[in-house]
Amino acid sequence: MKKKNSEPPPPAAPGLFGDSLPAPAPARKNGLLAFSYSKMSLYEECPLKYKFKYIDKIKEEPKFYFAFGNSIHTALEFLYSVKAPPFPALEELLEAFRLDWNKKSYLEKGYRTPQRADADYQKGLVMLKAYYEQNRAGFKPPFLVEYSTDVEVDGLLVRTISDRIEYLGGGEIEIIDYKTGKDVKRQPSQLYMYQKINELDPRLKEKIAETYGKRVSSVRVRQMQYYHVPTLKPYVFERADDKEIGAFWDRVLGVAENIRGIRFDPTPGEQACAWCDYKSLCPHFFGGHPHPAEQLSSTTENIEALVDRYGRLKERMDELQAQLDEVGGSIARSAKDGAQYAGSQYTARVKKNSKWEFRDREAVIKVLNDFELYQKALTLTLTGISGVLDSADISEDARKKLLEQAVKKTAVDIKIVKKEGLI
Ligand code: SF4
């Protein structure tokens, strides 16, 4: 699923506590909350996991099954992106798969070994050949392929991306979703979301008029098809009734309200935590440390996988550090020295101190030597040299020369304490 880019790019930070940057917040566009079926599923699985992924924007580790599924989807998108026959030849379809597959290394795709990646590549070729042979007689240009839309409803901007949509006439459509996992299960929330949003989408009516020359007053989803590519089997689910959609929509609005209310308490669960990449950041998971079993498995991984994993963890740490700096900068700019501020979960005491920073070490040493202040500084540390600059008994000339190398900065110390009774 393509990511929505709803936040403006942050301005460059000039220094440690320079111009502050906005703290991460739920993605919004024109006051609307950016929403989707996958965001809702993740929030319902664990709100804290949602926060790590969508608010803090901490990348998850790559998953090989997503990489595999994405390459199959890309190849099928290529196959169906024709406005009129002829359709691409089988070799062209396989080439589209190969090109997409080779965009990333096996580690970037989330495989532990090149052998596992190659086995899946071969599996993908077999799967696509079988798909082509089974369906080639019925190939016809589809109504829409990889149709992405954002629909405004109830203060939300809901995105759906449909793999394929077929027009059945009379304003009715069928949505087709390719599945590449082991099996196919009915996913009611996805069905409801796609039905609701596509029926509200005004662009679909325009597209029907453009493509088929017919104006329709409304669009109705007759059915949704999950096509299981590994077994070449379609699973068709009929449209949901109004009662089901109504109950589902109440759930959507409840989740949206919680996100707007910044409610991200973790809801640990065996299944959710087992597949969670944020365990090492999660305060409710072994005190913030990885599960011992996971540590054990690390030692048996090959060095390349460990290097890759180390790099990803480092990237996450850098991202978190950058966010910490941004938020700290915002507090530093707004807070008064010595004041205490209380949020709903934490209190912060803020202390501001002025300090000197020196640009050019060699030039500072020269000034100390020229004015025989070396002994006074005792050590060539920031404290030692600052002490010389602030002392009363140095000549004005020496002070002036030292000041030419010095910049006065405000250091801010933020002491955070969690409020009592909160865990
Ligand atoms: S480890 Fe479990 S509780 Fe913590 S964020 Fe992940 S899913 Fe949620």
What does this structure look like?
The protein is of the alpha+beta class. It has three domains: 16-265, Lambda Exonuclease, Chain A, CATH 3.90.320; 270-325, no CATH class; 340-418, no CATH class. It is 46% helix and 20% strand. The chain contains 16 helices and ten strands. The chain has helices at residues 37-45, 47-55, 64-80, 90-101, 106-109, 114-135, 188-200, 202-212, 242-260, 270-274, 292-300, 303-334, 361-370, 374-377, 382-390, 396-405, and strands spanning 28-29, 32-36, 144-153, 156-169, 172-179, 220-228, 233-238, 340-342, 346-358, 406-418. The strands form two sheets. Strands 1, 2, 3, 4, 5, 6 and 7 form a seven-stranded mixed beta sheet that branches. Strands 8-9-10 form a three-stranded antiparallel beta sheet. α7 (188-200) packs across α9 and α13 runs antiparallel to α16. It is elongated and about 95 Å long. The two termini are 35 Å apart. Bound molecules: iron/sulfur cluster. Iron/sulfur cluster binds next to α2 and α10.
Shape: elongated
First-to-last CA distance = 35 Å
- Using DSSP, what is the number of strands? 10
- How many helices? 16
Number of separate domains:
3
| CA radius of gyration | 29 Å
Unreliably modeled segments: 1-23, 290-299
What is the percentage of strand-forming residues?
15-25%
Helix content: 40-55%
* Broad structural category: alpha+beta
Overall pLDDT: 85
CATH level-3 fold name of the largest domain:
Lambda Exonuclease, Chain A
CATH class term of the largest domain: Alpha Beta
The biggest beta sheet is recorded as:
7 strands, mixed
CATH architecture assignment name of the largest domain: Alpha-Beta Complex
> Are any ligands bound, and if so which?
iron/sulfur cluster
- Reading the helices and strands in chain order gives EEHHHHHHEEEHHEEHHHHEEHHHHE
